[in-house]
Amino acid sequence: MVTVHDPRQRELSPLLPLLAAADPARVVAWRQGEAVSAAHFLAEVRAVAASLPHAPAVVNLCEDRYAFLVAFCAVALRGQTNLLPSSRAPQAVDEVMKAHPGCHALGDQPLDPAPPGYQQLPSFDAQQPARVDAPWPSLPADQVVAIGYTSGSTGTPAANPKTWGSFHASNAGNLARLHAIVGERFEVVATVPPQHMYGMEMSVLLPLLGNVGVHTARPFFPADVAAALAAVPLPRVLVTTPVHLRALIESGIALPAIAAMVSATAPLPVELARAAEQRFDAPLLEVFGSTETCVFASRRPVVDEEWLLYDDVILHPQPDGTAVEAPQLGAPVTLADIVSLSRDGRRFRLSGRHADMLEIAGKRASLADLTRRLLAIPGVRDGVVFQHGDGDALGVHRIVALVVAPELDEHAILDALRRAIDPLFLPRPLKRVAALPRNETGKLPRAALLALLQSPA
């Protein structure tokens, strides 16, 4: 038997189930065309948990979503913490491991070089795990089961601890919003990695804590997305990003019927949302949150410009951002987003981020709005407007842009921008590139943007 956690914790914190609905037959995952029941899944979780060394934390590097699910639960069942670096790059992993002395790493692939104490999981295609006659597993609500790291799109990745109770609370909001659209039972196909908090919420917590089954692959190309959707029953929910949505639309591929799409990680242009709904005949839900807060609002962009808060979420606008109160947060968290509230505080509009707000010669603009206008130019496939790191004598930073537009030159793009924005905010330089350095979730780490800007043309 696996030692779940210190028994003294049971006296200090209520217990919450590791898997919702104590039904051994419930389908948790779809793997290689086969349904994986809760009983089968838990047997593999217990087997991996028994093999883990004593440690306070584990860097979960599993790439296969099923391996990640098993490892995530096994680590938590041992009373350890899943460490989720913003990247699987060796430097990012090393930085996280140095911040957590005594931790080790766990994955499903051979790595060379491997992190210190790396343990590779056995293949789940081998023999069937032995069933253990044990109580349905639960965890203390205050157990820290994961530490997620921000993407580094605004600077150095920051650590954000998550308790099992906070994950239960945040998942309840996501489930309620999806139930209203697709019903009580649905299957998820996700193009985002489980290590990212959006991927964690939509492809790990939903199948663990809801009546949801998840396809365990992470399809990348449009044909792979179509195949994954075809491998799970109706109703299907596609969890993805604006970058993947654009690729799916431009590919012209026909997708199996889907009940809904969910998007996050980057602003979703309403034109793209409208095209996706028309192309795939399903509503598109955009969710709003952060690694610090998890998701706490959503909207359907083709219908609403305003965001609708989840139940029991309260926003407090401040001069430098917005304080968020939510059931999953032990204390309010202040985000850099500037919002304006409406409808008794239950809806809000985004006005930009405090760090994105620009003021030049008494005029104001936001980097997000400048990027939106850049992307609206016909012929621009991708792009971003951001501030360079070096400021002038008055502390004003240069506005620069990177653009993917194979059929346009820089002058044509700047001429189009000049008609859409105040000339004071024209990016200089504006550099055409073959592709932006987006990470697995479509975000743009600032260090990568600066390196690309400074690279030879």
From TrEMBL:
Q: Which superkingdom?
A: Bacteria
The yes or no answer to whether the keyword ATP-binding is present is no
Which molecular function terms from Gene Ontology are attached?
Answer: ligase activity
Annotated ranges, domain AMP-dependent synthetase/ligase: 122-316
Its lineage opens with: Bacteria, Pseudomonadati, Pseudomonadota, Gammaproteobacteria, Lysobacterales
This protein is called what?
Answer: AMP-ligase
Keywords on this record? Ligase
Q: Which Gene3D superfamilies match?
A: 3.30.300.30, N-terminal domain of ligase-like (3.40.50.12780)
